[in-house]
Write a structure and sequence with these properties.
heterodimer; A: about 190 residues; Fumarate Reductase Iron-sulfur Protein, Chain B, domain 2; globular; B: alpha/beta; Glutathione S-transferase Yfyf (Class Pi), Chain A, domain 2; Rossmann fold; 4-stranded parallel beta sheet; 13 helices
């Protein structure tokens, strides 16, 4: 953060937006850094979890949603378990991902955003996760070109083959019978909270 | 004892051996598992990363089904377990949210807040007990293992927590009861990187490499786990880890229930031991 923070460009409603997306108690943070200290993926983040929470508190919506950090979080809940102030840090990270996806903001980690979107899409189509379709759709979405997608699929092919040999990848999806109900849940949830 | 059984998606595919061994072990322990009718994907980490309400409604549909069948549920996959109990606790604490979620479920199916969610570790330790478990042992396992819990079996701590989020011991106790020498392992709740496996493979490779290396250094003959995603990272991806770090690891990774099943004298094939990717033959022969 070499640039000065301009409060005029900050969003005072951001804390509320994050809370409504399922990440509460951000304002209780006193910047101790316990979250960053225990984070297994902090080494790969552009801002540490402590910085992200501080930035949410300042309303730095753009910087936070554009950060690579939120996509590197592996949702291990170590930070949230240890936080002495009860900040729902892991849930804040998930909330931030969902806000970033919904606002269609350009992220530093297109692949991770593609993964979450694809997962929900595939689970929504069958009611259960059908892994071969997840691998296929993710490869198409995560890469910028068809050549890139094919290269990714070829790279992952031995892994898929090994699982198939052991009878651990199905050829046909296991499907929920009451798909009408599943479709309604997805439609109502995604439509209602925008 | 009769429990609703929520296998979740991975136990139908990449973690088939977990499903097989859970069913075998609980049958031996006299617990009837009734699979929930027409259950759906819990949404895992992805649902909340896309939409908060969806991340509550998906597990709530399963809870509502269990409630209708008048069953408490047992959930072996920690990710599903965490999604199901956190939905049940969030909905119990907030009637407005419960109403919203029930509206999403529709008229035919409503959640009434009456379902308890358990992980097999909790059920074995607190409902069945080590004593009953011990009565079923026909072949104590003479091997050294590290207990690997991963993240979300114990984190974040729930209101009715059954084990410590920082230093859990339930798996240690079960392993010790079946004869295993449980080695000290300070990474027992450190993340394997499983959830970011597809999008950021290098992170998963690094975190899982550290887990396996430490297990090896401790003198373990195998890693015991109770999570399909950890198992996928440590077992199925071990060959990728070996390639990335140019080091032979050769560490079998077994589900806790596979080990318990072996001690119960259940045939390896029935426990899906032919489905593990890192070869387990040498380990089985040494028992």
């Amino acid at each position: 953060m070499e640039e000065p923070i301009r409060l005029t460009e900050c969003d005072p409603n951001f804390i509320q937006e994050v809370a409504e997306a399922g990440g509460k108690n951000v304002q209780l943070c006193f910047q101790c850094g316990t979250c960053s200290g225990g984070c297994p993926t902090a080494y790969a983040m552009d801002y540490t979890p402590r910085q992200i929470i501080g930035m949410v508190n300042l309303g730095m919506r753009n910087e936070v949603l554009k950060s690579g950090t939120i996509w590197v979080c592996s949702s291990c809940y170590t930070c949230m378990t240890r936080c002495p102030r009860g900040v729902e840090i892991t849930k804040v990270m998930a909330a931030l991902k969902s806000i970033a996806i919904k606002s269609g903001i350009e992220t530093k980690n297109k692949k991770a955003a593609a993964f979450y979107k694809t997962f929900v899409e595939v689970a929504g189509a069958y009611g259960r996760l059908f892994e071969p379709m997840l691998f296929l759709k993710f490869a198409l979405k995560a890469e910028d070109s068809l050549t890139g997608s094919v290269a990714r699929l070829l790279k992952d092919a031995p892994f898929g083959l090994e699982l198939t040999k052991k009878g651990k990848l199905a050829f046909m999806p296991s499907k929920v019978k009451n798909m009408q109900q599943i479709k309604k849940i997805y439609e109502k949830a995604m439509g209602g909270s925008k | 004892m009769k429990l609703g059984y929520y296998p979740g998606c991975s136990l139908e595919s990449t973690a088939k051996e977990y499903d097989m061994s859970v069913r075998e072990v609980f049958k031996a322990l006299g617990v009837e598992l009734v699979e929930l009718e027409d259950w759906n994907c819990c949404g895992a980490t992805a649902a909340h990363s896309v939409d908060y309400l969806l991340s509550l409604a998906l597990p709530a549909r399963n809870l509502a089904i269990a409630g209708k069948q008048n069953l408490n549920i047992i959930v072996p996959c920690p990710e599903c377990y965490q999604r199901e109990w956190s939905a049940s606790e969030a909905l119990a604490a907030n009637s407005e949210l419960l109403e919203k979620v029930n509206e999403l479920l529709g008229n035919g199916l409503q959640y009434e807040g009456n379902v308890e969610v358990k992980h097999p570790l909790d059920t074995i330790i607190n409902d069945i007990g080590i004593e009953k478990l011990s009565q079923n042992i026909v072949k104590p396992l003479k091997l050294k293992a590290v207990p690997y819990y991963g993240c979300v079996i114990v984190k974040p701590p729930r209101k009715k927590k059954f084990d410590s989020p920082e230093n859990p011991v339930s798996m240690d106790k079960i392993l010790a009861a079946i004869g295993v020498e449980v080695l000290p392992y300070d990474l027992k709740t450190k993340c394997c990187g499983g959830p970011v496996m597809l999008a950021s493979e290098d992170i998963m490779l690094k975190l899982s490499y550290e887990l396996l290396k430490k297990a090896k250094a401790a003198g373990a003959q195998c890693v015991a786990t109770a999570c399909p995603l950890c198992h996928l990272a440590l077992d199925a991806k071990q060959i990728n880890i070996e390639k990335a770090y140019n080091e032979k690891i050769d560490m079998p990774v077994l589900y806790l229930t596979q080990l318990v099943g072996l001690a119960f004298g259940i045939a390896p094939k029935k426990l899906g031991l032919d489905k593990n990717i890192v070869p387990v033959e040498k380990l089985l022969k040494s028992l």
